[in-house]
Amino acid sequence: MNYNLVADTIVKHCGGTANLAHVTNCMTRVRITIANAEQVDMQALRGIEGVLGVVEDDTLQVIVGPGKSSKVAAIINDLLSGTQATIAVSDPEMKARLARDKAKKPTRIKSILKHIANIFVPILPPLIAAGILMGINNVLVNSAASFAMAQHIAAIGDMSPTQVVLDQRHLLGLSTFLDIVSKALFGFLAIYTGVTSAKEFDGTVVMGGLLGAITIAPQLAHLGLIPGQGGLIGVIFAVWLMCWLEKRVRRIVPDVLDVVLTPTLVLIIMAAALLFVIMPAAGVVSNAILHGMNGLLATGGMAAGFVLASLFPLLISLGLHHGLFPIHLEMINATGHAPLFAIQIMSNSGMVGAATAVLLLTRDPMMKKIAKAAIPTSILAVGEPTIFGVNIPAGFAFITGSIGAGFGGMMIVLLGVTTNGVGAAGLSALPLIADGKYLQYILAWLTGCLAAFVLTYATGKLRGYDKESI
């Protein structure tokens, strides 16, 4: 990809730099806050070579693929660093349009999910990296533990039998290193979530991190609380309330006392509310969600796996799938496993299978070119390239791919596959699979892929898609 050309063309078809108020990115998308939507040429945007799809929402989301989104966004932000960016923000008419766009939020539930997604998007890259490192370490530790049990190896000094085996294999240092690095994220995730939540809700960033730190303090046991009680749900709510309170306290505190009095008052009030109200209440909510999800999977079985996996491509297409990260992480904190995430990533298999069928069916050279680029990317990591570049443009393929993903979800439940981390899908998810069920995961993924391929290919033939020129 010519990143500079793609970035320049995106800016051009979005109405120029003066029409771009803010630009950021997630794993696959360049997210652009537009001042005047009427100046955006959506058809031209979708026609840019290298752009796999465009999603119109509260932000304009241009899908270019993993690894590429950060580079394109960085180039656009370089373009915005000049005087034109200042015009986009300072112009009163554009400010008014931005305010009107913000007022167009369709539902409160969607707004909440969007906020949660925005909170976790900045954490995703290290979360994926830490999850992969944790998965690699789990392979080393589980192998050593099985060998120690089979050979009846005893502990030596402060070392457990597993550590003794790792030491004999000269892997104890590596295992310790991987354990420290991965737990540095998962162990303090409440702090990072507090920081990104405060940024999302326009509050003091470090104050958000401080509230997160309070929820994992070991001294909480003296107050009858459990470190981590209420989980990330409690942290996010507490930080939202803190940001709301901070803005109102700042209105009444004299400017000369603001730097001292405002944070002190806010911290005292919010710490008390967090410890004595929010954490206990959020603990009840968090436990109810966990029990509900586990109960659904336990009682619904394969049917639940089918329905959930079939719905996940829709959530991904709407950009709402990140809103489930608190649930995945709470499951890991409570049980060590995230069975719902294992079902979620079956959406990847369905989209790959459907896109492969479209590749074989289509007579459109541009569609073939996009599919050939999107399919390997989705096999390796994320499904957005096949979703937006191939299956949604094809129409029926998104539906048949979602149904195919459901069969992958059924196999996940049947084979008892779970993950002990969260991250990307496809082959990148292999290190995250718990209990060494790598072959079972691959079998479930292939099942979803094959089912989606067969459904899409058969539907395409019946619809005459292979005879169309577009």
UniProtKB/TrEMBL annotation:
Main location: membrane
Enzyme class, UniProt record, top EC level: transferase
Membrane topology field: Multi-pass membrane protein
InterPro entries per UniProt: Glu_permease_IIB, PTrfase_EIIB_Cys, PTS_EIIC, PTS_EIIC_1, PTS_IIB_1, PTS_Sugar-Specific_Components
Domain PTS EIIC type-1: 127-470
SUPFAM superfamilies: Glucose permease domain IIB
Location in or out of the cell: Cell membrane
PANTHER family: PHOSPHOTRANSFERASE SYSTEM TRANSPORT PROTEIN, PTS SYSTEM N-ACETYLMURAMIC ACID-SPECIFIC EIIBC COMPONENT
Name of protein: PTS system N-acetylmuramic acid-specific EIIBC component
Record lineage: Bacteria, Pseudomonadati, Pseudomonadota, Gammaproteobacteria, Enterobacterales
